[in-house]
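In this supplementary section we document a worked example of the pipeline. Step one takes a protein sequence of length 480 as its only input; no multiple sequence alignment statistics are reported here. Step two produces a three-dimensional model, which step three serialises into structure tokens for compact storage. The input and output of this example are shown verbatim.
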Amino acid sequence: MTTTNSAAQSQNHTRPKNLAELIASGWTSRSVKQEIQQNFTLALASGEPLYPGIIGYEDTVLPELNIALIAGHDLLFLGEKGQAKSRLMRTLVRFLDEYIPYLDLPDLPVHEDPLKPITSQAKAFLSSNSPENTPIAWWHRNDRYVERLAPGTKFADIIGEIDPSKLTGGISMSSESALHFGLIPRMHRGIFAMNELPELDELVQVGLFNILEERDVQIRGYPIRFDLDLFILFSANPSTYNRSGKVIPQLKDRIGSLIQTHYPKERDQGIEILLQESGIDLGGKYPVQIPYFMMEIIEEITHQARSSKYVDQASGVSARFSLSNFRTMVASARQRAILLNEPLAVPRISDLGHLPTSSLGKLELDLMGSHQMSERKVLEALVANAIKSVFEKYVNEFGLKEIGEIFNKGVRIEVGDLLPSDAYAERLKHVPPVWDTAFEVNASDLPAIRASCVEFVLSGLHALDRISRSSKHGKVQFEV
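The serialised model returned by step three reads:
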């Protein structure tokens, strides 16, 4: 990441240690927004990746964010849960200088700009000490970002409060030295992020409005004319942000840009996010190989939930829903490989029977649409619809409907999450050759992968009402 201040200053042994050395180095003072704007401009011009790990926003969210950064606006990320709002906010740290200097003096409440101090203590020190005797330390960009969750946040936490111990020592109430400063003043020259803005107490919102408007601090009616230098970020859910009275109009008016986020537009984008974020080691003693159709089904379950009339769409369905289900599916496949001593763990449809453990509690039901359906029943419907949706794509590609014709009355095939992979081949010995079409879905001679294909095709045929299905004690039978 290129920065406009001298690269030599990022090397610990060359960074100035006092104000005289800093001035001699040619370091220039910039506001945090100027710093981000200039560093972002350099990154944009260089063609380097601007937001590593952000997927699916290239043509929608990111162009608007780019413009907001160039404009120097405070930002609000508006979107439902699991839409990478917090990740986007944290990513902006990379556009700060790697290090900035500050006055290394005891008892200063903020990291003072050596050339533009804002506190009376710093100004008094500089007026009575030479640059050679003014110590300088360096603040890393990772420490210049702080994030706060709105619920439960008090005025004293982020703005400040009068310190009673200092009053008893004879300090005037109207003096800045009598105040204990909260997170925002202490983040002078940094980035402050507030998650779930509408849940913030109205009194605290007023304090934020004053900082956004005047960049000063008012505590219990005593204005301290600090020229605060801040880049302020917010996140919010549309259902609460747009509700009258949740956010004071004056605060809304002072937020420079609103960046609207969204869920992945395409299933493949969701799978890409899934693989990036899951953090699962698929190797090791019991390696895992995941057929693509199983990843499609996991992501499609979430997609179905985001459009289901049974799920409260105002709440949204987080990407963490997919992640939890993905990990559960992989864990079930691995358990089978361990118990049956199979060399390869391959997820199957029967592994989805364990999804309630990772799904229940994550879906907020629409009480009007669900008609008293339990969350478990809603989940079962979502899984069934997901299998059908994915299978229909493969039907068009491989013509799998013909396989349903080979089931004569009385033919049964039993499957289960703890059934050995070799058992599937045994069950299909007397099935006509047309069944081999099923294995084109994920071409392989490995028994575990072929077993997964068998379950996918059988479950898909059931979803299309071509064969029937019954289950007992975790084992499932398919028949005409």
